[in-house]
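In response to the reviewer comment on reproducibility (Comment 2.3), we provide here a single inverse folding case reported in full, input and output, so that an independent group could reproduce the run without further information from us. The structure tokens appear first.
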């Protein structure tokens, strides 16, 4: 019998577009508009603007456990719809900002709240609900949107900001979210396969092999963890130790690599192209990471990713040409490819689907010190020294500490 098309791949496709317009658009735009925000709103201080960005990350961490718990018990789709509305409003406020407090309102409060709802946490848990046996590769494909944005947007945004101004460009972000993202979530996204009388992975209910595998998976996925149980579980802290440094470095690269490339002698277009090369590499490597996770497990995959990112941070510190930046961006792209999909994969593997949102949210609290301090440290190091080199080397060391985390990741545990 011919294999029927599985609607879960529509969910993966929707997640790619959502990632493009949330994590991708916001992340890659930050570094390009940072110098303009600093000049107009913060007396030239990149550290102050980075601190405003970081306050948004803090808000995401604070509210994520509550958003995750709500998404576990209710509809992730409705959570994403509210998040998309807040995201469009955040861009409207940012585009019209005249003072530092208005920047904080836009990027710290509104943007932070929006990303907690329509960002990777809820988006990835929705994809994970649709797959069990193919979860690793489905997540590997679903997080490609941010990387596609990284390939297409840096050069485009750099030229838009140069020719139209950063405010007009950001007004365009608000319109794009309202006209594209909201209808997509409303029409395409479904919370779980059961809504369409389907089983995860498109399994056939009459297939005894698929049914037995599904039953085993459902037994684990049906476990419900309390916050107290999650906070006592070693895998949650191990995941935080692993991904905290990775998130730290991701934020530094998204906000400061463009400026670092400029200060290293690259033109605006060459600096933007470096970001595009990084993103293009991660597009290629994200499915690779997914297949690696399915085939050899989370531990080895994560060690490879951490080592690649650490190597890249050391090389970025000494890079001084387009060729060296591009080569290093490819290396970093492999490590970056593991960040979003492997985080969800590791948590789903440890805690099951019923508590994935709660685990993801509480993990944000554990990762908060890394996420909150990363970008401001790099910005203030630049303000003080005129260079990002020292900061990049410090963050390479953070990644080596993160290599301890996978040792404590088990293959399977049970609640309580």
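Designed residues, in position order:
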């Amino acid at each position: 019998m011919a294999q029927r098309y599985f609607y879960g791949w529509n969910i993966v496709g929707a997640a790619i577009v959502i990632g493009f317009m949330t994590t991708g658009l916001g992340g890659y735009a930050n570094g390009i508009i940072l110098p303009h925000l600093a000049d107009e709103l913060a007396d030239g201080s990149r550290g102050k603007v980075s601190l405003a960005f970081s306050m948004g990350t803090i808000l995401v961490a604070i509210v994520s456990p509550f958003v995750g718990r709500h998404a576990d018990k209710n509809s992730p789709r409705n959570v994403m719809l509210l998040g998309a509305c807040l995201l469009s409003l955040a861009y409207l406020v940012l585009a019209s900002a005249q003072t530092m407090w208005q920047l904080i309102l836009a990027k710290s409060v509104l943007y932070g709240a929006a990303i907690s709802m329509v960002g990777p946490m809820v988006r990835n848990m929705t994809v994970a609900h649709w797959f069990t046996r193919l979860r690793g590769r489905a997540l590997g494909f679903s997080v490609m949107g941010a990387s596609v944005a990284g390939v297409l947007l840096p050069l485009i945004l750099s030229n838009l900001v140069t020719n139209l101004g950063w405010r007009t460009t950001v007004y365009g972000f608000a319109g794009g979210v309202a006209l594209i993202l909201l209808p997509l979530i409303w029409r395409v996204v479904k919370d779980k396969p059961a809504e369409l009388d389907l089983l995860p992975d498109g399994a056939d209910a009459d297939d005894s092999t698929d049914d037995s595998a599904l039953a085993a998976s459902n037994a684990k996925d049906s476990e419900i963890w309390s916050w107290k149980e999650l906070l006592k579980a070693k895998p949650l802290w191990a995941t935080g130790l692993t991904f905290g440094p990775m998130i730290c470095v991701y934020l530094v690269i998204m906000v400061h690599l463009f400026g670092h490339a400029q200060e290293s002698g690259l033109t605006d277009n060459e600096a933007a192209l470096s970001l595009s090369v990084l993103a293009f590499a991660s597009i290629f490597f994200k499915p690779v990471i997914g297949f690696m996770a399915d085939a050899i497990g989370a531990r080895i995959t994560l060690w490879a990713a951490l080592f690649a990112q650490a190597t890249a941070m050391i090389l970025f510190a000494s890079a001084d040409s387009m060729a060296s930046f591009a080569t290093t961006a490819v290396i970093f792209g492999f490590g970056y490819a593991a960040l979003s999909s492997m985080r969800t994969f590791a948590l789903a593997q440890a805690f099951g689907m019923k508590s994935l949102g709660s685990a993801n949210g509480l993990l944000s609290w554990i990762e908060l010190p890394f996420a909150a301090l990363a970008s401001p440290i790099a910005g203030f190091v630049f303000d003080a020294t005129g260079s990002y080199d020292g900061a990049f080397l410090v963050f390479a060391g953070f990644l080596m500490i993160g290599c301890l985390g996978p040792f404590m990741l088990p293959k399977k545990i049970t609640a309580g």
